[in-house]
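Quick one: structure for this chain?
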Amino acid sequence: MATWMGVLALEVGDAATQSRLISRAGADALTPRLLGQIGRLLPAEHPYGFSWAAALYDPAQVLRRGFPVHVEIQDLFLAGREKGLDIGQSLCLMQHQGHMPTRVLEPDAELGAGILQVIPVVLTGSDEAIDAARETLESSLYEQGLVDAGSALSLSEDLGSPLQHVRWMSLLDMAAMMAAQLEHVGLAPAWELIEEQLFAPRPRELEVTSALGLPMRLDSTGLHVGFLPFAVFARARPDHSGSAALDDWLGLVHEFRQLQALFAAHAMAPLVPGEQDGFLTETHSEGPSVRYRLHTHPALGALAWSGFDARGALVEHRYPLSTVAIERFIRQLRSADVAVESVRVSLAADGRDLA
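Got it. Here's what it folds into:
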């Protein structure tokens, strides 16, 4: 038994107000329309099973190693064979009381609802049938892949949001689109690692550099992304003035957080060399810290905590690497009744207030 994995890609006009789940009535009405269209594109000499999940997913949720959403759909189709479901029939997996049938099929709420959403589709058949389907679909979807106007209108009305385009795509087509979008925003090096993790049976060891110079490496131990505390960054640029060094470092923080979010969306948790409990910590004395100064930025939020002992001497700088680490440390300080002064990031005369 073989499979072809694809999606219906939707460009949503008003992503903020749309539903992520297609209604049961809407899914029932849409299934024969989709079957009719995909059937016209498939080789007539082979029978196929058609299964899909009636929900909208961020592309990153379906582009994860092992393609768990599509595999779950396929596994449920195969499980249905015990009840008489077989090749030549269709299966629509839809919501019940606001939830999809399994946890894997729940749209990831943390990814939000962006302008581009996808509906996962799986074709099942013999090896020969899927080989023929793949050859046909890969050559015809670009020219003939637009969903008919009636299906698009039905989807739009059910979701309560206008749809700009609805198109059939293979997962390879979807990946190529994501690669182009990330290249446009300067994140192409990160996609090299994501693509290797997605499609390589045994991912190779790869090392790339971000647009601003952050090292990224994929190896047998996982994904590694470098990050520089401000002190290290500033010392490496002695020719920069204080404000220039800080501006450049803030750009690095922004890029690092973009990379973190991108990798997390594709279920790739980056490791940071030197990280402990979600922080990079520079220790200056034994402490303990009885007072902290939180350095914040209007757009980036918490950047670092500076800890001081009872005499006012610097004990440590703590650089948080995730929102979870920030929230956990705030709770720890509150429970220990440690004083925290919050200040906007500003530079001392020597340009080294975090150094």
